[in-house]
Design a protein that fits this description.
Strand 6 and strand 7 form a beta hairpin. 33% of the residues lie in helices and 22% in strands. By secondary structure, it is an alpha/beta fold. Strands 6, 7, 13, 14, 15, 16, 17 and 18 form an eight-stranded mixed sheet that branches. Strands 1, 2, 9, 10, 11, 12 and 19 form a seven-stranded mixed sheet that branches. The two termini are 15 Å apart. The protein contains 15 helices and 19 strands. Among the domains are: 159 residues, FAD/NAD(P)-binding domain; 91 residues, no CATH class.
Length: 442
């Protein structure tokens, strides 16, 4: 294709996945991204020998094709790590998932949870009729467990109450145990591992984005290229600064609420649907200290409302090369959303509170030396599946199909998908373009 291009918007996992699929079939593409760095939400940053990813990224894919591609991306230089995961609630450290690890919690609480779980299981609720996350939690676990753990965490993570959320995003994320598993985990300090992530891979050096270095090298990427307008009739993309690129085929991994207002002639109902879609944003607080023995976990969830962070991960556990020798690192996630919980402070204003709460939980000691601290604000974190999301997403996707724009990735599909699924999503978008090319060349 000489006169017009296959254009890809966004150089994260899905954008690079689309470019890879096209390249493997003999077609080059041009990738544009507004950032000054590649990798999108899977970017990594290193400063003074401290490496932090944009959020907790690991590779636990069961997709053999993606596993092989990412392994090749680092020439096989990755670590395989057991996924130790736990929870913190009111001074208790609980193995994950909490529903089968109640041992050591207050006896009255454990008794009530078990009784209510039995009662919920006897009700035989038809889950096909359940509409909200709250209803699903009550039917699955009973009210006390639901309100003490997943509903409290859900408000911190999704920024919205469970009765305003749908359930299509759940997948394997909340383990539904048998009665025997709950009782065993209540009386025994050791329970079988039932978390959907048992082990994972992580690059030896350079952070998670190292998996993508070879894809970057093989791709034609223009950074600092922010899209401001798309004309689907003339097939033109206009960038900030006035640069205009013609396209024959367009693949976008941009968030749906971002791309839709840019499209010339977009119908009002589609524009309205896109603006009703909502997503959380995240303040990351990255901390480095002078010792590595912080916690025997890779990441952990926090349910207490008065603890500022929702989740922690420990980059030095993923790879010791993420920190200076002998040091440890902590990444705290604090969630907001424009619709339900607006961010009203500067990210750096959360550092002192984060450190105070880390000390309160015993993760940072008074005599620890804090050697590194920084913050980042992630504008798009997780899709919030409120009750109108499915309807509005369909309206937007139908329109993009109509104007022949492929969409992919977490924010293009507007789905709760992981990094390997995002790469596969991009590959699928590339396959769609290949089918169109084949059809048009007949």
């Amino acid at each position: 294709m000489k006169e017009k291009e296959i254009v890809i918007l966004g150089c994260g996992m899905s954008g690079l996945g689309a470019a890879h699929q096209l390249r493997e079939n003999g077609f080059e593409s041009k990738i544009f991204d507004k950032q000054s760095y590649f990798g999108g939400q899977t970017a990594s940053f290193t400063q003074n020998n401290w490496t932090f990813d944009i959020g907790p990224h690991i590779s636990f894919s069961k997709d053999d094709t993606i596993k092989a591609l990412l392994a090749d991306g680092v020439d096989g230089k990755f670590l395989e790590i057991k996924a130790g995961v736990n929870n913190y609630w009111q001074g208790h450290w609980i193995k994950h998932p909490a529903q089968v690890n109640l041992h050591g919690l207050p006896p009255d609480l454990v008794t009530t949870i078990i009784i209510e779980f039995i009662e919920a299981s006897k009700k035989n609720t038809d889950k096909s009729k359940i509409k909200t996350f709250k209803e699903w939690l009550y039917a699955s676990f009973g009210e006390t467990f639901a309100e003490t753990f997943p509903m409290k965490y859900g408000i911190k993570f999704h920024t919205v109450h469970a009765d305003k959320m749908s359930i299509e995003w759940l997948g394997p994320r909340l383990y539904q145990p048998k009665m025997k598993e709950i009782v065993y985990g209540a009386v025994s300090p050791k329970s079988p591992d039932v978390h959907y992530i048992s082990d994972f891979r992580y690059p030896e050096k350079g952070g998670y984005v190292s998996f993508l270095q070879k894809f970057k090298q093989k791709s034609n990427i223009s950074l600092k290229s922010k899209v401001v307008a798309i004309d689907p009739n003339d097939k033109k993309v206009t960038f900030e600064g006035g640069n205009v690129v013609d396209y024959e085929y367009l693949i976008s991994s941009l968030p749906l609420p971002v791309i839709i207002p840019m499209i010339k002639g977009v119908p009002n109902n589609v524009l309205r649907a896109s603006q009703e879609l909502t997503c959380s944003n995240c303040v990351l607080v990255n901390i480095g200290i002078d010792r590595a023995d912080i916690l025997d976990a890779v990441w952990t969830y926090f349910y207490d409302e008065d603890i500022i962070f929702t989740r922690l991960n420990f980059p030095h556990v993923q790879s010791p090369n993420n920190v200076p020798e002998g040091c440890g690192s902590i990444q705290a996630e604090i969630y907001f959303s424009d619709k339900y919980k607006p961010l009203e402070q500067k990210p750096e204003e959360f550092v002192d509170r984060t450190i105070a709460d880390l000390k309160r939980c015993g993760l940072i000691k008074e005599d620890d030396k804090i050697l590194y601290k920084e913050t980042r604000h992630i504008e798009y974190a997780n899709v919030i599946f409120d009750l109108d999301t499915k309807k509005n997403t369909k309206i937007v996707h139908d329109y993009l199909d109509e104007i022949d724009v492929e969409y992919c990735g977490r924010y293009g599909e507007w789905a709760y998908i992981w990094t390997d699924q995002s790469f596969r999503s991009g590959m699928n978008a590339g396959k769609n373009v290949l089918r169109k090319l084949e059809k048009n060349n007949k």
